[in-house]
Amino acid sequence: MCLRTSDLAATLREREVPAEVFQDVRILAAGISQAKIVAEVLRMKSGALFRGSYAMNVGAGAAIVARLADLGLATPAIREVDIHPVIVSPLGEGALALDALDVAE
Prior knowledge:
- By secondary structure, this protein is an alpha+beta fold.
- It contains 2 helices and 7 strands.
- The chain has helices at residues 34-43, 58-74; strands at residues 2-4, 8-11, 25-28, 78-83, 86-88, 95-97, 100-104.
- The strands form 2 sheets. It has a 5-stranded antiparallel sheet with strand order 3-2-1-4-7, with helices on one face. A two-stranded antiparallel ribbon has the order 5-6.
- Helix 1 (34-43) packs across helix 2 (58-74).
- The chain starts with a strand and ends with a strand.
- The model is unreliable at 1-8 (pLDDT under 50).
C-alpha cells in the first residue's frame, strides 16, 4: 500500500502474488472515508477472502489507510508512505502494519 499527499494507492495481494498480476488494484482519493475504503476492498477480486466463514476485520485495515491518508494531507512534508504488510485479523480483532517506509522533504 502506498500513500502520497495528493492521492492514495492501496494494493492488496494474497500471499506472494502481486495484485497487479490479477489487475486487482484500487486507487482511492486521499480523504476518502473508512467505509468507502472497506467497500472498495470488498469489491476487489480478492475481497472474497474477507467474507464468509473466514470473515476478516477489513474495517481495522481500512482505519490504518484512512488515518495515514489524513496524516499525509495534514503534513505536506510527507511525500509518500509505503506500508507492507498489513495483517488484518478476524472480526472482533484489529489490524497491524508490520513495516512502513516514509519519504519526506
